[in-house]
Amino acid sequence: MRRGTYSIVAHDPQTGECGVAVQSHWFSVGSVVTWGRAGVGAVATQSLADPAYGPRLLEALAAGEEPQAALDRLVAADPQGRFRQVACVRADGAVAVHTGEGCIAFAGHTTGEGFSAQANMMVSDRVWGAAAEAFKTAQGSLARRLMAGLDGAEAAGGDARGRQSAALVVVPAAGEEWDRFELRVEDDPEPLEELRRLLVVREAYDLAEKADEAMGEARHEDAARYGAEALALQPDNHELLFWSGMGMAQSGDLEGGLSLVRRAIELRPDWAELLGRLEPAIAPSAGIVRDALANEAASQRAE
Q1: What is the mean pLDDT of residues 217-243?
Q2: Exposed, middle or buried: residue 199 (CB in 10 Å: 0-12, 13-18, 19+)?
Q3: Cα–Cα distance, 163 to 286 (Å, whole number)
Q4: 89 with 115: CB under 8 angstroms?
Q5: Which of 61, 65, 165, 223 is the S-S candidate for 29 at Cβ 3.0 to 4.6 Å?
Q6: CA–CA separation, 259 vs 264, rounded Å?
Q7: How far is CA 147 from CA 20, 56, 250, 287, in A?
Q8: 182 Cβ partners below 8 Å, 6+ apart?
Q9: How many CB atoms lie within 10 A of CB 81?
Q10: Sign of the torsion formed by the C-alpha atoms of 259, 264, 270 and 276
């Protein structure tokens, strides 16, 4: 089963993260191509894709085998190795890549410090270089730079068959196997646009989690800053509005918190009913917010 695909694997020396991003005219490309494990690395397996390269390479890296030696060993034992295109990056930034001579043109790869960009079945031989250049010049988080790499490949023409699905995986420098930042677009006429939208949503929710953690540790200024950053990314997300408002009320800014909770209820009236279910152990400010809203409603009725 052939998958015309462009992808990039990379390491962030500042955070220790590793990641992989991919786009293809194939349904659910992320379920086949993208692999990663915290503290170990990331893998892209494509062309005549064999998903087994993902876990096998990660196991080899975890066991201490050198990336290129591990990849060469797997390809040598693979009867269809000449049709495979595989790249991996280890948690220290070491990279390995293989583009078999049987991959459909235009196919190739380019590597740089801590990354590899690769593609097959492209409109031209400029695609993987464009991905690499876009990644190298991008700013921001590893996820954002991987996204830029995909954009660069697409701007250079991308997959000869067009677009259908995309995925992005980032794993931390240390953690459990399930610690990962993963986004997938399974089937969309503009998968990169949708992947970019999901990336912004994910960033907003990550900030909201940081706000919750800061609030739990009584770091109210940090909590307010994280909450504001989350809402700047997703200003009409009623979930984030509601919980940010509850956090603001808990920190002592009752009026500011009420304004966010009111907005959440306007967007999704069911939040008013949910507010009545919250216990202090879950939301310490629930009682004062309920009382304040009830008093407002009573005052409006009296008028």
Answers
A1: 94
A2: buried
A3: 47
A4: yes
A5: 165
A6: 9
A7: 10, 26, 37, 43
A8: 30, 34, 167, 168, 169, 170
A9: 18
A10: negative
Q: Is the confidence at residue 267, as pLDDT, over 90?
A: yes
DSSP classification of residue 83: G
User: What is the residue whose two structure tokens read 């590893």?
Assistant: 142
* Type of residue found at 283: A
**How far, in Å, CA of 229 to CA of 218, rounded?**
18
Question: Which of 216-223's residues contact partners 24+ apart within 8 Å by CB, and which partners?
Answer: 220/251, 220/252, 223/247, 223/251
Please name the helix (run of DSSP H) or strand (run of DSSP E) that holds residue 162, with its range, or none: none
pLDDT band at 186 (very low <50, low <70, confident <90, very high): very high
Reported as a single tens digit per residue, the pLDDT across 16-44 is: 999 999 999 999 999 999 999 999 999 99
Is 163:189 a contact under the CB 8 Å cutoff? yes
pTM of the model: 0.94
Length of the chain: 303
Whether 1 shows a pLDDT value over 70: the answer reads no
> Which amino acid, residue 220?
H
Sign, Cα dihedral of 281, 217, 229, 181: negative
Q: Where are the alpha helices (DSSP H) in 189-237?
A: 191-216, 220-233
Q: Which of 107, 113, 109, 157 is nearest to 129 (CA)?
A: 109
| Strand boundaries in 129-210, DSSP class E | 165-171, 181-185
Confidence tier at 127 by pLDDT (50, 70, 90): very high
What is the Rg, in whole angstroms, of the alpha carbon atoms belonging to the chain? 23
How many whole angstroms separate alpha carbon 20 and alpha carbon 30?
A: 10
